[in-house]
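Problem 3 from the worked examples.
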Amino acid sequence: MSEKIEVVVTNEFIGERLDVALSKILPKSRSNIQRALKEMGIKPSMKVKDTMKFELTFTEEESKAAIEPRPIPFKVLYEDDDIIVIDKPAPLVVHPAAGHWNDTLVHGLLYRYPELASSDLRRPGIVHRLDAGTSGLMVIARNLYAKQQLMASFKSRSVRKVYLALVEGRPREPKGHIISPIGRNPKNRLKMAVVSQGKEAITEYEVLWTTGMFSFLRCIIHTGRTHQIRIHLKELGCPIIGDKLYGAKFKAPWVPNDRFFLHAWRLAFPHPRDGKTMSFRSPLPDELIAALREARSTATEKRV
C-alpha cells in the first residue's frame, strides 16, 4: 500500500535542509521522507530557498510507528484554544523511538487531546522537545496555525528558555556565555558534540551557588540544539550531575538513575494568536530539591 501527500514548505524554512523541514511538517519519519524524496530524484540535503510544493508518495510505515493513544501522566499548567503548557516529568520520552514505542508524551497528548491527531500523528503539536532525563516546561500547539506561529517564534529566538542545573565542580567565571557549534559526534552517532562544522549554539550561564565540589547554575539557551546545555556544560568542565552520557563522574545516588539534574524552569513566548507574552515557571521536582540538600551535605562531609 502507498499514500500520497501534498505538502507545502513555506519560506520560514529557508536555509534548512529539505528533509529536516519536511520532518517538522509531516507525520512521517525522516528516513521515510528521505526515501520519498530520492524516489522523486530530489536530494534530501538540498536547502530550502523559497516556498516549495511537493506531492510525496510513502509506502506503509513500520507497524511500530503506529501510535495508539494511552493515558500517560503529565501536568497541564495552562490551556486555551491554541496552546497547552505542560510540566513534563523525567524520564518521560517525548517522541516514540526504540525502546519507547508505547509510553511517550505523544501517546499521552493524543489520549488527552485527540483532536491533535488531525494535523500530525507522529508529532501532535510538538514545536520543541526536552530530553527524557530533563523535566520541566513545554508548550504544545493545538492547531496548525498555532504550530506555525510557535515554530516561527522559536526560529526568531523570541522564546525565552531558562534551565536549572546542578553540575560537578565550579566554573572559572561566575557567569558567562558558551558559544561553540554543535553537531553529530563523528565517533558516536548517538551523541552530539562541539564540532567545527556544527550549527551555532549559544548558552548563557550564571552560578547561583557553589560548594566548589558542586555548583548550581541558571542557564539560558539562545539556540535550541540537541543536548545543547549538556554539551556546553561538559565543555565548561562542569558536566551535569547524573549525566553519564556526557561525562558525569561523581556517583550521585541521590539523583534517580533515570534522569539527570537539568530542569526547564521558566518559559516565555508570544502567544500565537495575539502576540501577548505568556510566561510560566515550574518549581523543581521533589527529587531534585532533595538532591540539592544532599549535594550540600556531601560537599560539607568531604571538606570535614
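Problem 4, a separate protein:
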Amino acid sequence: MQAVLENDDLKVTINHFGAELSSIVKKEDNVEYMWNADEKFWKRSAPVLFPFVGSLKNKEFLYEDNAYPMGQHGFARDMEFSLVSNDGKQAWFSLSSDETTYEKYPFAFTLEIGYLLTGHTLKVIWKVVNEDEKPMYFSIGGHPAFMCPLNGEGKQTDYFIAFDTDKDLTYSKLSENGLVYKKDNILPINGGTMQVTEHLFDEDALVVEGDQAHRLSLCKPDGNPYLTVSFDAPLFGLWSPAKKGAPFICIEPWYGRCDSEEFTGTLEEREYGHRLDVHENFETAFEIEINQ
C-alpha cells in the first residue's frame, strides 16, 4: 500500500512497507526525482535505517553479556508500518516493537516517521520513543537515492555536488565488511562544489563525520542545483553502487554509523550511538527541496 501527498508543485508517494519514500514528481514537467528501486542497480529508493546505521562488527552487537545478530542498517526498512494519518499534505507512519523485534533488539520502542509537504519542500521527521523500563540505545539515518542524471539529461560525470562549505571535506572509507577502516581521506571542494567523477564510489560509500556540512545540492551540468538536502545530523554518507554506473546518488543524513574495523566494545560504547532514558523520546528531521 502507498500514501500520496500532493500540492500544486509536487506529488509525493510513500510506501507503507518501511515507511519508505518512493517518488517525488515535479508536476510542472512530470519529472521524477527519486530512484525507482530497479533491482538491476538497487532495489530500494529511500530506506529508513533503524535501529542501526551501517554494518556491525562481526554482524552482531553486545549487550548485557549477550550477542545479538544484526544485519546491515537494522530491520525497520523491512517491516510494515501502520499509517496513522494522512491529510494529503502530511502523513505519519508508526512501527512498534513486538516479540519478533525484541528477540533481536531487546528494547521496547515506537518509531514514528512523518512526511510534511510544503511548496517545493518535503520534510522528513523521525521520532523514536523509549517504551521500555531501561535505557535504550539506537542509531537512525536516511538513505534517499536521487536521480543523477536527472530525466536522462547528460552523463552523471557532467553533474556536480554543491556543499554549504568551501573547505575540503575529510571522509572515511569502508572495508569489504562494510566497516570504517581508513579515515582522513580528502574530498576536494573547489568553491563549494565538486564534480561527480567516474570512480567516486568505487570503494563504496564516503562517510563524512564531524558536522562538516549540513546542506548538499545535486547540480545539473550548467551548475544550477535541482535538488537540495538539508539536515543537522553530525555525519552523512554519499553513495552509489560501486562500479555499476547507477543513475542515482544517495545523500544520507545519519545519526550513527557502522562500526570501525578495530571496534571491540558493547552496544553502549558504539560511536555516534544514542541513549534514550526511560520513556524519553528523540526527534529530528531533514528536508528535501526541489529547486525551481
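Solution to problem 4. The first helix runs from residue 99 to 104. The chain has a mean pLDDT of 97.
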